[in-house]
Amino acid sequence: MKGGRFADALHGRRGSDKVNRELSLRREAVMAKQSLDWDTMARELAAFRKKFGHCRVLTSEKKYAQLGRWVAKQRYRHRIGELPSECVEQLNRLGFVWAPADEAWNRMFEKLVAFRARFGHCDVPSQWPEDVHLANWVASQRHRRKMRVLSAERIKRLDALQFEWAIYGRPKKQKPAEHKPKASEKAMAGETCERIYHVGVGTYVQYSGRGEKPALLRQYLTEHNGEHPPYIPLPGGPVVFKLGALIGSGVRNIRWPGKGKLPREVMAHVEEHGVLPPHD
Length: 280
Description:
This protein is mainly alpha-helical. It has helices at about 1-50, 65-80, 85-95, 100-120, 130-145, 150-160, 185-190, 215-225, 265-275, and strands at about 195-200, 205, 230-235, 240-245, 250-255.
């Protein structure tokens, strides 16, 4: 009996070893394929960089959707510490942007620094004709801090510029002079009541000012005692949005007739960057 049990144990151990070897071979095959796939996509990214001068691939660009998803995956793997160091080094040599949101924020921050050096304060008037994007970004920072989603590091950097977080509660005499556009300027700018409201982190709703307000906008007004959220005004007539122009990628023209819902690609751009794409 003892001999029989020993033989069974030996047979079982050999069977287990065989299974482990098969699993090991399968893992090696999967890893080899993943490595091959990774190298293929890395070469595609290198070609993209050679063509456009950067590695900021957007998933909203149909031609590069697969590459964009791969780029996003590399950022995620890097963030959780799963991306091998040799892959990180290879992407760094291409000028890979690990945190595109930080890069975009820093660009707008530098614009605010220049504004303060010129005017002595950070209160960019809404609808400031020289840079509507900056005015919207400043309003967005106040909103994000109010929603407690603005990082302490960014608050500290804005505080260093003597950034005013609450402009509505100040006495009128302390408020910065607001740019009052003339009728001709309004016509040229195509000013309209159609707006995109920033009601939460990465959440925007379009509203024309007519009819029933969207549910998310009603909820925001209820929670903030009737105070409207920051908004982005929409052009008052037909326009062509240039997707990809903000980051220097290949430009795609998206037409909007000046009324009705914005194209999904344009809203995706707003949700990612906080501003409208450049447009004619």
